[in-house]
Structures are given as C-alpha cells and as structure tokens.
Design goal:
It contains eleven helices and 15 strands. The N terminus is likely disordered.
C-alpha cells in the first residue's frame, strides 16, 4: 500500500480535534470508507495551492483558465455533470505532504488534491474531492464513481492491466541528513560504506537498502541498518547523531525538512534515487479506469500546466521540485510485473 509509509509521521502531528474531524469525515461516507467535498477550486480557474497546510507548503493562488480544446476531449457524461470527481486514498490519517486534512479540520489539502484541482480548472469543471481508504479508492475507480485518482499511485505494468495512467511526478526515494552533514549520495551505493541508515521495515526502500548492504559486504565494507518503531524514533536518532541518514520516500523527507527548518537540528536532502531502482525511473500517475477516455485529456491538461508554469509553481509550493517531469505521458513504461 504505497501511502502507508507516510502515515506514522502524520498521526503524531494530529490534534485531538483534528482526529475527531477525520473520524467524522470518514463516517460521513459509505460505511466509513469515503467522503466527498467540493472545495479549493472552481470552474473559474482560481486554485489556492497549499491551503491550510500549517506552513508545510508555500500557499499561493494560481490561475488556470479553462481550455476548450482539452475540455472537448472529455467524455460527454463528464462535461454534462459539470464536475470532475477526484479520488484520493487518504483515509484514515492522510499522508503528508501529499494528502491530509488541513488546519481548518475539514479541507483535504496536499500536493495530490491540489494538482487535481488545477486539472479540473483546465477542464472548466468543478473539482469534487472523494476521499477514501486506499483499497476503496480503486473500488471507486472500478465502479466509475471516481473519474481520476490523484493519490501517489505508482505506474506499474500490473496495474496497467486494469487502469490507464497519465504520469505527473517522479517516484523517488531520498536520504535525509542533518544540515550540518557534508555527506551526499550520488546514486552510487559505495557512498554508503561505513554509514548507519534507518529505514522502515517491509518497504521498497528497505528492499533496495538491503541489496546495497549485501553488495558492500561482498566488497568487505559495512552498511549498518537501523529500525525504529515509528518516524519519530528515526528522526530523534538522526538529531542525536545515532544514525547518519534516513532513507525514505522523497515527499516524506521534504515534509520533515520543512517541519524542522527553524529548529536547532535542521535537516536537508542528501540525494535521491528512483523508487523503481537503477534500471527505470519510477513515475507517479493519475489513474483512471481502463478505456474510459480520460487519460488523454488529463495528460493534455497536465502538459498545459507544465507549459504555462502552474505545474512548476505547484511543485515548488510543496517542496517537490526535484520530482518534476518534463511531460505527462499516457501509460509510460511502469514497474515490471516481477516488481509490481
């Protein structure tokens, strides 16, 4: 479940009132599994990026006017509805900075819903956010209740058997180190010799790190891997010098860097690595039901945002500029079936 890796860190940041709000939102949906809200954008094309993000994004208002030629590519049923149903799998706790309940305790904020709102603006449609659990997100796509999911979904060959994709962001992992550290990762595992790195058990990044550990061992060199029960433990270990780095999803690293920027132990990004490994650049993609006719207009809308500058401003607001793509692609090569 790709979004689970962000949740531990987010739960620690919730207030009691925010938890109550999330529970209320979940119970409002079908069986507590989903909820729908229309917020954060309008057919007029004004979208507030980073709304209610509690300082973890640089809030800004972007204009993305409707483009008739792209709107005309949409299925008639979507145009006639006047709404663009955006699926996000952020229940129960969210995964910042990608999708989480904002400080107003009701608005679904984060980079993923914000991009969905921008795409809706290009379509000239009202954005409606449908928040669900990760499993029910795909149920919503399958049933047609959700038009397109913007929810940190990795493009894989396995998923392409059922879904169409329009890519919009690189799927990267990153090393987080203290800002005072001089160490950097340049894509070569040899740089990890003699280092102590924390990672979350059972994740893709652990699999990659364990491979590097074996490769270093074969060279007579050592990479120590540490595990902590939650994100707070690894962050405290980094701050106290017990570990040299944290290896995790790039968005989560970016979020924590923003959180501690003004503390006595600020951190920085020491280098990224593709979540798909050395042979392929992993991609995050908008996800639609296969053959429903939405992948092309979504890709064209994203490319319009890239060409006209809103895309770069969106990424910068959420500190994710290092995951930019040069163009949205329809069903690009994904993680192979052997690694899906």
């Amino acid at each position: 479940m790709p979004n689970s890796r962000f949740r531990t860190r987010f739960v620690r940041c919730l207030t009691v009132s925010t938890v109550a709000s999330i529970l209320a939102t979940g119970l409002a949906g079908c069986g507590g599994s989903s909820s729908e809200t229309a917020s954060g954008g309008s057919p007029s094309g004004t979208v507030t990026i980073g709304a209610f993000s509690n300082g973890t994004a640089r809030q800004s208002t972007l204009k993305a006017s409707a483009v008739a030629s792209i709107r005309d590519e949409l299925p008639k049923s979507v145009v006639d509805s006047g709404k663009f149903i955006i699926g996000v799998g952020a229940l129960p706790a969210g995964f910042p900075p990608l999708a989480f309940v904002g400080t107003d305790q009701k608005t679904l904020t984060g980079s993923e819903p914000d991009l969905g709102r921008l795409v809706a603006a290009v379509f000239g449609l009202k954005p409606v956010l449908s928040n669900a659990t990760w499993q029910n997100l795909f149920v919503g796509i399958d049933s047609g209740r959700i038009d397109v999911a913007f929810s940190n979904v990795t493009d894989t060959e396995q998923r392409k058997l059922k879904y169409d994709f329009a890519s919009y962001r690189q799927d990267n992992l990153a090393f987080e180190v203290l800002k005072s550290s001089t160490w950097n990762f340049d894509g070569r595992y040899e740089r990890l010799a003699g280092k102590t790195v924390s990672v979350v058990s059972g994740t893709n990044q652990e699999k990659i790190l364990l491979t590097w550990q074996e490769q270093l061992k074969a060279r007579g060199e050592k990479l120590s891997i540490k595990y902590y029960p939650d994100g707070n433990g690894s962050e405290l270990a980094l701050a106290s010098g017990k570990i040299d780095a944290i290896f995790g999803p790039n968005p989560g690293v970016a979020y924590h860097i923003a959180q501690v920027a003004n503390t006595s132990k600020p951190t920085r990004n020491a280098g990224e690595y593709s979540g798909a490994g050395a042979a392929l650049q992993g991609l995050i993609a908008a996800t639609t039901k296969k053959g429903n006719g939405l992948a092309k207009p979504v890709a064209d809308a994203i490319n319009y945002l890239i060409k006209n500058g809103q895309y770069a401003k969106w990424l910068a607001a959420w500190n994710l500029s290092n995951e930019a793509v040069s163009a949205a692609e329809i069903n690009p090569p994904g993680l192979p079936l052997s690694n899906s």
